[in-house]
Design brief:
3 domains, 8-stranded mixed β-sheet, 7-stranded mixed β-sheet, Spore Coat Polysaccharide Biosynthesis Protein SpsA, Chain A, alpha/beta, binds 2-acetamido-2-deoxy-beta-D-glucopyranose, about 20% strand
Length: about 500
C-alpha cells in the first residue's frame, strides 16, 4: 500500500507550511500570505485524499483560518501553554484500574489534551468518566521484530504512540509529551520547562535513569519513558517518517524509549536534559532523593507503586495528594531547597519546600546539605549505588542524622505568600531513638517549622538557576517548640558559609 508514502508527503507539506509561516516574522506580504494559503491547501488536499479521519480535515481547516488570516496569531508568537502540549500515555487495559488513580491526580479535563493508548479495546465493565483522558487503541504491531529476550513486545506499541498521536493531526500542537500510565506529571512546571525552548526547532527533552546500571543498559542518551519526555513538533515530523524502520533496526532494544532514542540518533538530535523529570528508577524510600531536588522545577514522578510512600506515615495516594496540595499553591517552588544557619544556636536548617525540613544541631556545610541521603537502592540490582547523582549514607548513630519534619499544612497568605507547616517525624531509619549525648536539647524541643515564602514566579526559571536563601526568624530565647523560617531571594554576596 502506498498510504504510508502518501501520509509522509502530507506530513512534509504540512511541515513546510508551518516553517514558512514561522520564520518570516516581519513584513508578511500579501504574496506570502497567498503562497502560504496555497501550500496549506495542497496539504489540505493531501489530507482529505488520504486521511480517513474527517477530524483532521476540520482541524486543519481551522488551522488555516487561524494561521493565514490572522498572521499575528501564528505559532511561536505566543507563550507556550498547556493547550500546546499533546500527551500520549501508554496504558494497558489490564492495569487500568490500578493506574487510573495516578492519571486522575494530574489530568485536567478540557485543559490537558491527549489520549491513553491501550493494547486492546477496553472491557465493557471498565469505568470511564469525563475526568479522564479519552482512550485510543494502538494499531497492530505483529509485523515488527522484537528480539530482546527479557523484554516485552509491548515496547513496539509504546514506541509507536508518538507516531499514532502525531497522525491524529490535531491543531496547534507544539510538543508531544509521552508518558506511562503511572507517570504523575506536574503540568504547570512542564509548561514552564517547555516554554523555555523554541518549539519550532527540533528538541528532545527529558531525563536519564537515576540508576547507573540502567543507563549503562539502556543508554545515557535516552530520555526515560516513565519520567515522560517531550518531542517538539518539527522533530516529531521527522521522527514519524522513519520510526517504523527504526523499530525493526533496534529490535534488540528492550524499551520503547531506547528505540525512539535510536531513531533520534539517526536524525542527530541529542537529549536535552531537564532535571525535573524523574524516572524514579530506585527502590526503597524516595525521601532522600526528593528532599535533595536539584535547582529545577519538578516535572514528573514515576514508579510510585515500586517505591515506599513519599510521606512515610501515609499511604502512597495520601502522600501524593499531600505533595500536590503544596504544588497547587506554589508549583514552581515545590521541592525547592533552601539552607540557613541559626548562629545563636549553631543550627543548620534545610528546607525542601512543600515536603520536608531537616534540622541539624550543628553547622553543616551547604555542600553536605545539598547531597541526597541514600534512603533507597538501585532499580535492578537493589544495590547501594551507583546513581547518577551523589548520595551520602544515613548514619545509624542518631547523633549524626538531622531531625526530620514533614509537611503538614499549606496555606496561601494574602495572595502571593505561602505558609507551610512541617511536623516532627521520628526518622524511620533511626532505630536507636534520639541522640542522648549531644548538646541539643533546644533542637529536640522543636516540634514544628513554619516556613513562609513568596510565591515562586515561573519567570525565575528563565534565569540562571540559583538556590533561594532562607533565614531563621528568631522567636523567644531558649527552648521553643516552633521555629519560623522565611525563604527569600538571596542577596548579593550572600552565601551559606559558616563563620
Ligand atoms: C494558549 O495560547 C493560545 C495561543 O497560542 C491561546 O489562544 C490560548 O487561549 C491559550 N490557552 C491557555 C489555556 O492559556
Ligand atoms: C471485567 O471484564 C473482564 C473481561 O470480561 C474480566 O476479566 C474482569 O474480571 C471484569 N472486571 C470486573 C471488575 O468485573
Ligand atoms: C525480522 O527478523 C527476521 C529474522 O531475523 C528477518 O528475516 C526479517 O527480515 C526481519 N524483519 C524486518 C521487518 O526487519
Ligand atoms: C557555636 O559554635 C562556635 C564555634 O564552634 C562556638 O564557639 C560557640 O560557642 C557555639 N555556640 C553555641 C551557642 O553553641
Ligand atoms: C504557624 O502556622 C500555623 C498554621 O499552620 C499557625 O496557626 C500559627 O499561628 C503559625 N505560627 C506563627 C508563629 O506564625
Ligand atoms: C532575636 O535575635 C537578636 C539577635 O540576633 C536578639 O537581639 C533579640 O533579642 C532576639 N529576639 C528574640 C525575641 O529572641
Amino acid at each position: 500500500m502506498s498510504s504510508t508514502k502518501a501520509r509522509s508527503e502530507t506530513i512534509q507539506n504540512h511541515f513546510k507550511y508551518r516553517n514558512f509561516l514561522v520564520f518570516p516574522t516581519n513584513g508578511l506580504s500579501m504574496l506570502s500570505l497567498a503562497l502560504c494559503c496555497s501550500i496549506a491547501s495542497i496539504s489540505l488536499i493531501f489530507y482529505s485524499a488520504f486521511s480517513n479521519q474527517s477530524l483532521s480535515f476540520n482541524f486543519l481547516n481551522h488551522k488555516i483560518d487561524a494561521n493565514c488570516f490572522n498572521p499575528g496569531k501564528v505559532d511561536g508568537f505566543e507563550k507556550t501553554n498547556i493547550s500546546h502540549i499533546l500527551f500520549g500515555i501508554g496504558g494497558s487495559v489490564n492495569l487500568w484500574n490500578k493506574r487510573i488513580h495516578y492519571i486522575e491526580l494530574w489530568w485536567k479535563p478540557s485543559i490537558t489534551r491527549g489520549f491513553v493508548w491501550f493494547d486492546h479495546k477496553p472491557f465493557s465493565n471498565m469505568t470511564w468518566t469525563e475526568t479522564l483522558p479519552q482512550y485510543k487503541v494502538s494499531k497492530d504491531t505483529s509485523r515488527f521484530n522484537y528480539t530482546c529476550w527479557y523484554g516485552s513486545r509491548s515496547a513496539i506499541r509504546m514506541a509507536r504512540i508518538v507516531k499514532e498521536t502525531f497522525e491524529l493531526g490535531l491543531e496547534n500542537i507544539r510538543w508531544f509529551v509521552m508518558g506511562d500510565d503511572d507517570t504523575v506529571f506536574f503540568t504547570d512546571n512542564l509548561v514552564t520547562v517547555l516554554a523555555k525552548y523554541n518549539h519550532n526547532q527540533m528538541y528532545y527533552i527529558g531525563a536519564n535513569s537515576e540508576s547507573v546500571e540502567q543507563d549503562m543498559e539502556h543508554s545515557y542518551a535516552t530520555a526515560y519513558g516513565g519520567a515522560g519526555f517531550a518531542i517538539s513538533y518539527p522533530l516529531a515530523v521527522e521522527l514519524v517518517r522513519i520510526l517504523d524502520g527504526c523499530i525493526n533496526r533496534y529490535h534488540e532494544f528492550y524499551g520503547s524509549d531506547s528505540k525512539i532514542q535510536g531513531c533520534l540518533s539517526e536524525i542527530g538530535v541529542p537529549l536535552t536534559k531537564e532535571l525535573g523529570f524523574h524516572q524514579m528508577d530506585i527502590r526503597g524510600l524516595p525521601y532522600g532523593l526528593l528532599a535533595a531536588h536539584p535547582v529545577a522545577p519538578l516535572v514528573s514522578l514515576h514508579h510510585l507503586d515500586d517505591v515506599l510512600p513519599i510521606f512515610p506515615s501515609q499511604t502512597r495516594m495520601e502522600s501524593l495528594k499531600r505533595l500536590i496540595s503544596g504544588y497547587e499553591v506554589d508549583p514552581g517552588r515545590t521541592l525547592q531547597h533552601s539552607f540557613c544557619y541559626d548562629l545563636r544556636r549553631n543550627w543548620s536548617v534545610s528546607v525542601s519546600w512543600g515536603y520536608t525540613v531537616m534540622l541539624y544541631p550543628s553547622l553543616v556545610t551547604a555542600k553536605k546539605l545539598e547531597t541526597a541521603f541514600q534512603t533507597f537502592q538501585t532499580w535492578g540490582s537493589r544495590h547501594g549505588g551507583p546513581f547518577t547523582f551523589n548520595t551520602r549514607t544515613v548514619s545509624s548513630d542518631p547523633c549524626e542524622i538531622p531531625l526530620v519534619y514533614l509537611l503538614d499544612r499549606v496555606e496561601s497568605v494574602g495572595g502571593d505568600e505561602t505558609l507551610t507547616t512541617y511536623n516532627r517525624y521520628l526518622p524511620w531509619w533511626n532505630n536507636q531513638g534520639e541522640c542522648r549525648h549531644c548538646d541539643c536539647t533546644p533542637a529536640l524541643a522543636v516540634e514544628f517549622f513554619n516556613v513562609s515564602a513568596s510565591k515562586f514566579s515561573p519567570d525565575l526559571w528563565n534565569k540562571a538557576p540559583r538556590r533561594q536563601c532562607c533565614e531563621i526568624i528568631n522567636g523567644s530565647d531558649g527552648v521553643n517548640s516552633m521555629v519560623q523560617v522565611q525563604i527569600r531571594d538571596c542577596m548579593h554576596f550572600e552565601s551559606v558559609t559558616p563563620p
